[in-house]
Amino acid sequence: MLDFDFERLRSMGLTAALASQAAALAAELADETGLRLVRLTVLHRETLRLHDGEREFDARSLPRLARRLADDEDMLAVGDWVLAAPDAHGDLWVHERVPPQTHLARRDADGRRHPVVSNVDTALLVMGLDADFNPRRLERFLALVQGSGVAPVIVLSKADTVPDARTLWCRMQELRERMPAGVEIVALDTRDPDASTLLAAHTLPGRTLALLGTSGAGKSTLTNTLLGAAQQDTGAVRESDGRGQHTTTTRSLFRLPGGACVIDTPGLRALRPDADEAQVAATFSDVAALAPNCRFRNCTHREEPGCAVRESLADDRLRNYHKLLREARRDTMSALERQRQVAQWKARGRAGAARARAKREPG
């Protein structure tokens, strides 16, 4: 029998669909007593923090659950709903994870997948209007979110550092020209209480937000502003490059006064989205819109003459598009296909070196 109060957990983001899935999972664990439906709020190396809508508890994940998730290249993430039960000593253990409705993940340099957050409605992509301003990096964060079911909102923080309204308008216009149509862009001072009003449409009861961005962008400051209390530590950025000092080291879920939840995340400066080609295409929708105007139907938008995409887009945006597309294609390859690709690259390198030697040798 699963023990939970739907009305109480709704303020933690529980939906009818998640509750139904949780009940079905609990039925499969009929031999377990004292099962509770709780939400994962903090994930440490060995322990978890869980919330039942009233209190938080420390818990651990059963090894069999961790192994099963690892076999699927997956892990528990902050925002997950889980089924937990106490053992004979009163220690709480997580037995199952309710399949998340939305899930964001990134990949490391070796292509391994790492979860970021689960069961999020809106991702606030926070980028500072100081030295942190980098449209190419923002496109990577957008590719992380596109196609996941999570609505992206670009939050330009540190609006108070912009000298005048004209400069602010130009920065926002630059992004609107690069971002897909319909993506909301908001500029604000993360310390200003009015920031909560600007984001009120995304903090309705039962909703969950996740703040994503680089260290020093203002995510934790915005979290404190939304909470109305200084619960997250913040720090100054370096004057030389505007980078933060990784004050936030763990992902944490907080309940907002109005009934929504917010997940603050550590800064990510090097981001490789877990995105497929369709998600990359959605991030660069202007490429698809311009492609029919290219001279050749199979144009790759690289060196072909009469390429409408190359003629219309900024060079750095097109380079970013090709780089993200290469990463997405590589992530879908099998290990054997990757080996073949590396072998092809090496063969081309050897052939190029041989041609260079032949040109240097006297005839």
Mind explaining what this structure looks like?
The protein is of the alpha/beta class and 363 residues long. The protein folds into 3 domains: 6-97, Nucleic acid-binding proteins (OB fold (Dihydrolipoamide Acetyltransferase, E2P), Beta Barrel); 103-264, P-loop containing nucleotide triphosphate hydrolases (Rossmann fold), CATH 3.40.50.300; 277-332, Probable gtpase engc, domain 3 (Ribonucleotide Reductase Protein R1, domain 1). The protein contains 12 helices and 13 strands. It has a 6-stranded mixed β-sheet, sandwiched between helices. A 5-stranded mixed barrel has the order 1-2-3-5-4. Strands 6-7 form a two-stranded antiparallel sheet. α4 packs across α8 (277-283) and α4 packs parallel to α11 (315-331). The longest helix has 26 residues, at 335-360. It is globular, with a radius of gyration of 24 Å. Residues 235-242 have low confidence and may be disordered.
